[in-house]
Amino acid sequence: MISMTKTAIAATALGVLLTGGAAFAQSTSQMPATGYPDTGYPANGTPSTGAGAPATDYGASTSNGMTGSSTMPGTMPAGTGAPTTGVPNTGAGGNAPETAALLAGAAAAALVGAVLIGRRKEA
Amino acid sequence: MRRVILWAIVVGALGVFVWTLIHAVFYAPETEIQVPSLARTAPATKVATSSLPARLIIPSIGINAAIQNAGINAQGNMQVPSNFTDVAWYKYGAVPGQVGSAVIDGHVDNGLGLDGVFKHLADVNVGDDVFVQTRGGQQLHFVVTDIEVYPYTQAPSLLIFGQKDAARLNLITCDGTWVKGKDTYNERLVVFTRLVT
Q1: pLDDT at residue B167 tops 50
Q2: Are A102 and B16 in contact (CB under 8 A)?
Q3: How far, in Å, CA of A99 to CA of B23, rounded?
Q4: pLDDT tens digits, residue range B106-131?
Q5: Alpha-carbon distance B95 to nearest alpha carbon in chain A (angstroms)
Q6: Where are the domains of chain A?
Q7: Exposed / middle / buried, residue A47 (Cβ in 10 Å: 0-12, 13-18, 19+)
Q8: What tens digit of pLDDT does each residue of B31-42 get?
Q9: How far apart, in Å, are the Cα atoms of B33 and each of A53, A54, A69, A86, B76?
Q10: Rg of chain A on CA atoms, in Å
Q11: Rounded to whole angstroms, how far apart are CA atoms B196 and B179?
Q12: Mind listing the pLDDT tens digit for each residue in A25-82?
């Protein structure tokens, strides 16, 4: 009984490690050097304004009263109403293997933990 | 004490499982930053609520999706829909049906690699019909005029968001291969359409 319990605890620990490892791998894969998950896309070859541009930056913008504008230098021409850096990031599937591993690890940990609790109740 | 630890492990693992599953498959919102200068002058502020877009319909590829509003995310890019089945209209740009470039985006896939709403957007052809239903029930008819794929760092924002010569509707989604370090696909597919009626 004791060895079975130890085995189950070890299995639970393994599940937790799997989950933690997958979570760590996923978080680091999403974290470029800038500290943001996506550094933005330059518009028309101009430099990106950088991730996390604060809203106050837009305070310097002027409006032409037509379609909305952002006249931040070097980002977008005035009067376009376009995002300051560019196109949306509309895909999420590239991290599917890590996400699946995370789900599997978490499920394994929960399952083994539940089995252990059940065995202790029986004992 | 052991029982408490075991319960903590079970609850924690279940929490991780549920949170990950929800964000991978059902709900993945982006943080929007407020842009007061754009908000004040956005065309959407000058039209009746009934003129705003409600549904996007593309019969040739079986799309009939609800339209959310999208602003700008923390990276300065157009926001994406908060889920993988709706599309999102760029609320600081033109309103569909009015002169200017209205832009609608949608996910190509979700966090588990399953199909997003725009998974088959590349299958449309020039000449295909695209419809937008407004909140007031009006149906706007657009026709596909061009289909382009751009490297994600070189997508022509002015062409996509800024043309003002006609009532345009441009659809955008991800394409190409996954760039691991950047956490995005390396291309963007843009379907350009123009209002017919």
Answers
A1: yes
A2: yes
A3: 10
A4: 999 999 999 999 999 999 999 999 99
A5: 10
A6: 2-35+53-86+96-122
A7: exposed
A8: 898 888 888 888
A9: 9, 8, 16, 14, 8
A10: 25
A11: 38
A12: 544 443 333 323 333 333 333 333 333 333 333 333 333 333 333 333 334 444 456 7
Please state the pTM of the whole predicted model.
0.74
In chain B, domain spans? 1-30, 31-195
Q: The tokens 């079975």 sit on which residue?
A: A4
Task: Give the CATH architecture of domain B31-195.
Answer: Beta Barrel (2.40)
Q: How confident is the model at residue B97 (pLDDT cuts 50, 70, 90)?
A: very high
Within 12-41 of A, beta carbons closer than 8 Å to B belong to 12, 15-16, 19, 23, 29-30, 32, 36-41
Cβ of A61 and B3 within 8 Å? no
Residue A95, exposed/middle/buried by CB under 10 A (0-12, 13-18, 19+)? buried
